[in-house]
Amino acid sequence: MKFSLKVISENGPRLGTLCNLKSHPGRVFETPISLTLTQGGSIPHLTKDVYYSSVGEESIFHFADNLDVLQAYRKGISNFVSLPTHPVCVVIQDPGTELRSGYNDSSSISTWTDSGRIKLTPKKYIDLIDSMLPDWYEALNDSDTNFCASKKRIEKSLNNSLKFLKQSLRMLVYLLHFWAVTTHWIGSRWSKTIEMEKVDGYCLLGLHGNGATPQNLDAEHIRKCVLASLENIPADKMRQAQGAYSIQSILEMIQCGVDIFDSSSAFIATENKRAFSFPNTFESLGKLRKWKDRKVQRHREINDENQQSKKQKIDLQDRGRSHSCNMKLEIDVTDKSDSKEPLMVSCKCYTCSTFTRAYIHHLFASNEMLGQVLLMIHNLNHWEAFFKTVREAIKNGQFDAFKETFDSVIIILFTIASTESASTIFGFLSFFYDVTIKCRSVH
């Protein structure tokens, strides 16, 4: 596998390509890119016939108790799960499932399958990788840490991960058909330690416990941690971040130079009965910018009126900053169950082109499986369209302006969320629609 940079700037967004993949040597993928999260060889709620994706991410623990079967099969995981057209990246833990903490030790990493707890030693992990034949994979690591982890836990994580990496690299001498290996890093000390190791990229782990936990992290804190870690990382190697991060955090990491993400956010949103509706194109962001300007002007007029009537002035900027950047604006579709509009009027996905919001509400109210299928189709399409827009923005030198506009809109939306009713916000924009009642990996 070859990773090349087409656009690079110091402490800025990067545009790159992934090519010469072992399974698909003729295909080229542009970065920043989102890997499609898969569980047990399939995209959650979807079949391969319903949704086709170009790059996927498979979790090792789904197959940790099937080593004998995979070794006997000898054709790799992509053929095993009937997705031969998909390149594969293998990770240890499922980014969409919250990590069970406290079970790793100095000789193994714990995962849970249908058979229960399985301890992955470096030898067993490399045997699994050898039988799965991925295009690249995450080195065995102890990433059971987060922002609240103690100094002692972090020290153990670093020491265990480095030991596992060295043991794995010694075994890899005999596995020449692997083109890449990613490993986990946390903080400047770790990045200095592995700078000279024989790895082809770096994976950002140890900041959260997977599942929905990354959405509660402050984007500014993530930015500082990423910058500190990238300080000693070679610029020509790919950088991967796993987890259901917020859009603000994703933009911050892209600006810091992270290349690869995953679609676990779309999965988490679907599980929570939410439909993405954040601006994912230049057109939608432009419309939102015009709405924001009108809204700011209206609030200024209200402030002037309040001043004249000796009422307390509302400072939009201060009120915006006082709210967490992880706050989500949501709409309860229970009140809109008779709406004949799609989830998003501007969306061209199969769900929005075919079905109304009222019908999707009916599916969830009736506990129909089709509801999650349609919602997952929309969320994945919306998510991938966002990354396509990001790549276009970097190509055209507009990423900083795109991010600045996005951030400024977010501040205004947070302010309005604190001063207006949800029914009023619905008329403009929300990040998620509440649909009431609430990977095998690809590169």
In short:
The chain has 443 residues and is an alpha/beta fold.
Largest sheet: 5 strands, parallel
The average pLDDT value, as a whole number, equals 76
CATH class of the largest domain: Alpha Beta
Number of continuous helical runs: 15
Q: Order of strands in the sheet with the most strands?
A: 9-6-5-4-13
Shape: globular
Characterization of this structure:
This protein starts with a strand and ends in a 9-residue tail after the last strand. Residues about 175-190, about 310-335 and about 415-443 have low confidence and may be disordered. It has helices spanning about 65-75, 75-80, 120-130, 150-170, 185-195, 220-230, 245-255, 265-270, 280-310, 315-320, 350-355, 355-365, 370-395, 400-420, 420-425, and strands at about 1-5, 15-20, 30, 35-40, 55-60, 90, 110-115, 115-120, 135, 180-185, 200-205, 240, 260, 275, 330, 430-435. Helix 7 (about 245-255) packs antiparallel against helix 14. The longest helix is centred in the middle third of the chain and has 27 residues, at about 280-310. A 5-stranded parallel β-sheet has the order 9-6-5-4-13. A 3-stranded antiparallel β-sheet has the order 1-2-3. The protein folds into 2 domains: about 1-270, TIM Barrel; about 275-435, no CATH class. It is of the alpha/beta class.
